[in-house]
Amino acid sequence: MTAVSAVRSTQARSLSHPTLRQGARGPSVTLLQQKLRAHGFNVSVDGDFGPNTAAAVRAFQQARRLGVDGVVGPNTWNALNAAAPSTGGGGATPTLRQGARGAAVSQLQNRLRAHGYNVSVDGDFGPATANAVRSFQRAKGLGVDGVVGPATWRALNGGSVGPPPATGGARVNGYVNGVAQSITVSSVGNGKFLRTDAANAFNRMKADAARAGINLSVVSGFRTMDEQRYLYNLYLQGRGNLAARPGYSNHQSGISADLSVPGGYGSATYRWLQNNGRRYGFVNDVGGEPWHWTYRG
Ligand SMILES: [Zn+2]
To answer: How far is the CA of 141 from the centre of ligand 1 (A)?
Structure first.
C-alpha cells in the first residue's frame, strides 16, 4: 500500500462508511450517491439505496474489478474514495463497439441516458446499448454504425452547454415557467453552469465558504431539456428525486443548483449555507432537499 492510499483508507475509516446494500437509507447513502456521481454514474442523490443505485454500484464494482455484488463494503468504499477519473468532455473516450466492457462503457451508457435513451448502466455494451447508439447517431445525423468513435463521443458529450468562452457567458436554450428562452450561463466549476448572474454570486459564495473551510460543489446546475426529461421520468417511476415537469424546473432557468451536502441538514455545509446563503441571494426552497439552492437575487 502506498503512503497516499494508506492515508486515504485511514480517512475512509474515520468517516461514516457503514456497509450498505439495497434498501438502505440515510446520510451514508447520500454520500455513496455523491461518490458514484463523482465517478460519472448518473444516480439521484436522494439518500435512498434503490435499484438504480444498486445498478450503479455493480457497474462501478465491475469497472474496478471488485466482487460484483451491489453491496458497498470496505473495498468498494475505498475505491469510491480514491480520486474519481475525469469524465465527460475531458475524460477517456476510447472507441467502443458491441462486446466492450468497463468504465468507459458505463460512461457511454450514462451519456445515452442523459440524452433520453433508456439503457441500463451496467458497463456492458450489449445489443440494447448498440441499438441506443444507432438511434442516437441517426437523430444527430451521424454515420449509423453503432460504433462510438470521436464524432459520436463529441455529440454525446455535447448538449446545449459547451465550455464558456473566455470572454463571457455562453448562450443556451433554457426554459422559464414553460417558455423556451435563451439564457446566458457561466461556469461554477465541476463542469456545471448557472445563469451568469447566479454563477457570479455562487462563485463569490464558494470563495467565501472555502475561507470558512466549507467546500461548495455543484452536482447539478443548469439542465437541458433532455436532462430534465430524464430526471422527470425517473421521478415518475419512483426512482428519483422530486423533479419538476420538463420546462418548469428552475434548473432549466439556470438559477437552481444542487450542491454536495454530505450529511444533509445536520451538516456543517448545510449550516453554513443556511447562515450565509441569503447574503449571496441563495435560498433553500424545496423541503426535504437540503442540496437544492435557488438564486433569488
Ligand atoms: Zn435541484
So the answer is: 32
pLDDT tens string 65-110 = 888 899 999 889 888 887 654 333 334 678 899 998 888 888 888 8
pLDDT tens for residues 171-185?
Answer: 888 999 999 999 999
Spacing, Cα 119 to ligand 1 middle (Å): 23
Count each helix (H run) and each strand (E run) in the chain, helices first: 10, 7
What's the 2 CA to ligand 1 centre distance in angstroms? Answer: 39
Q: Are 88 and 103 in contact (CB under 8 A)?
A: no
- Of the ranges 40-49, 133-142, 153-162, 183-192, which one carries the lowest mean pLDDT score? 153-162
| pTM score | 0.50
263 C-alpha to center of ligand 1: Å?
17
CA of 252 from ligand 1 middle (Å) equals: 10
In percent, the amount of the chain with pLDDT more than 70 equals 87
Distance, CA 153 to ligand 1 centroid (Å)?
A: 27
**How many Cβ atoms from other residues are within 10 Å of residue 90's Cβ?**
11
Q: Is 173 within 8 Å of 253 (Cβ atoms)?
A: no
Q: What's the gap in Å between 256 CA and the centre of ligand 1?
A: 6
d(Cα 138, Cα 221) in Å, to the nearest integer? 29
CB atoms within 10 A of CB 162: 12
Q: Which domains does the chain have, with CATH numbers?
A: 3-81 (1.10.101.10), 88-157 (1.10.101.10), 170-295 (3.30.1380.10)
How many A from CA of 126 to the centre of ligand 1? 32
Ligand 1 centre and the CA of 116: distance in Å? 19
